Each structure stands twice: as C-alpha cells, then as structure tokens.
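User: For this week's homework, look closely at the record that follows, marking any run of repeated tokens, and judge whether sequence predicts the tokens.
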Amino acid sequence: MMNLLRYLFVLISFSTFAQHFEQVDAKVVEYPRFSKVEDLANQIENDFSSDAEKVRAAFFWLAKNIRYNLKEYYNPRQRYYRFSYASEAEKEQKLQEVKDQLIDATFRNKTGVCEEYAQSFKKICDLLTIESEVLKGYVRNSAEEIGIVPNATNHAWNAVKVNGKWMILDATWAAGFLRNGKWIRKFNNYYFYMPKTKIFKTHYPEDQLWVLRFGRISVEEFYNQPIYNDTFLGLEAELLSPKTGIIHITPSKNIELKFKNLDTSALIFYKIKGDAYPQKPIITTENGISTLVVKNPKRNTDITLYINKSDVLHFKIKVK
C-alpha cells in the first residue's frame, strides 16, 4: 500500500510539474524579442518565483528566439582572445568580459551556435543567482562518426542546479535541427531535462568530474555506440543488442537487433544506405524481448532504423 501511495504521489507530482511548465511557456512565448540579456533576466525575475520556473523560462526563451547560425556552423571562425592579467581574479574578469561581448551580440542579432546558447543561458542564471555551468564536450550526429574520436570537443551545453540537484540541458538542440542544409526551428522538450541514465547516449563532457557524476564511460566507448535519436530515447524501449554502433557481419548471416519494451504495433522499417527503398524487418517477440531481423546488405554501409517515420538509431555495418 505504501509503495502504491508513493507511486501515485510521484505520478501526480510529475503531472503537476509538466502542467506548471506549460503555464511558464505560455507566458514566455508572449515575451518580446529582448535585445539585452539583463532585460530578459529582469522579466523572468518579475514573473516567476521558483528556480525551476526561472530556469525553464530562460531555456524556453533562448530556444524559441535564438536562431542557429548555419553560416558559422559551415565556416567556423577561429576564436582567439589575447589579453594580459596580473592575477587570477583579473583573468576571470577579462574572460567574462569576452563572454559578455559574445552574449551581447547574440541578443542583438538573435543568432548563434552552441557556445552562444550555452553562455547566454549561464549569464541569465548568473543574473538570477542560480548556480550553473557551461559544459564543453562531444556529441555525434551521423553514422559516419561512429568509432572516430575527434581531436577536439565539438559542442557546448549546460548544467544547472535546481532544488539541490544538477540537471543537464541543451538549448541548442532544443531550438531545432538541421535537415538538407536548412535549419528547421522546432522546440524539442527532451533536451530541457535529459534523463540521467541517457545522457551518455548523446552527450559526453570533456571534464571528467561531470562524467563521474553520471556514470563510468570512456570517450572511446561513447563514440563506439550507435547514434541515438531523441525520439527513441523518449520511448520506454531499450536496445539490448548490439550495444556497439559498428556491427560486424559475415556475408551469410542477417543482422539481429534486440529490444526490450518495443512497441511492435508502431510503423517500423529500416533503410540501408545506397538502397533506393526502405524495408520492413522481420519482427518476433518472446518474453517481452523483440527481435528485428534486418536483411544482410553484403557490403560495408550504414543502416538507419525508423519508428513511426522518425529515424531513431544508426549503425555502421562492416563485412568480415
């Protein structure tokens, strides 16, 4: 009985929590397109009382109003900042001045890449006296990146402390996505509060302190995983095998993907890179474990799995 009561309390609390943010979003969507970060922070301070509400408001406004800068993405500038300092305090002050210039430009132009989103979010939190950090690290977007660790970090996102607990969020990925060379603006709530158990499916911090906060995994292991889409991560389904993103096969055997809690009534198909049409896998389920049999492509290639027309998993195929 006690466990049932606890479950109902959590369920009701979660529902209220989600509904509460709907009210925050409805208010923030009416905000003007502020040209100064201080004006946005002041508005949030006036409208909301809890840190959770303020964090949501800052995140939602940035994701809705800052457009991703594709020109910068395709032709990144080398950002070098040179200045002298006499103490650690002066160094931090001058670094913050550089960051503030970046943030000011972001609010004026309403564009930026991940660094601008992350620094802007932290600045708002600083103005609201909410503890937060900018995390630098690694993310992956395509099967071509599986198994290949880059020489430098390629992304920035945030951690923020709410009610004594750290939550990880990514305003850049929440703002929209790249498709066929164009930026599609579409808010993605998944990246507001990424589940602790799924962070390493998409994001890997450079600072090992942050790695240890959420698990034990090396950057090599991170890059050897399949590419997970947030659509899949938002489901109850769990990929049981293969756990690695590179599937080694012989020319004579088909590929098997095993899942727990997979909704097999969904529209499921796969696409082999280089083939003209997608195909349906053979699906069997036993004791709650679903097996998808994918036809052997008999060549080195990539495979994408789709659920309800959304690409959810990407693998590399290597023929032995």
Notes: The chain has a mean pLDDT of 91. The chain has eleven helices and 17 strands.
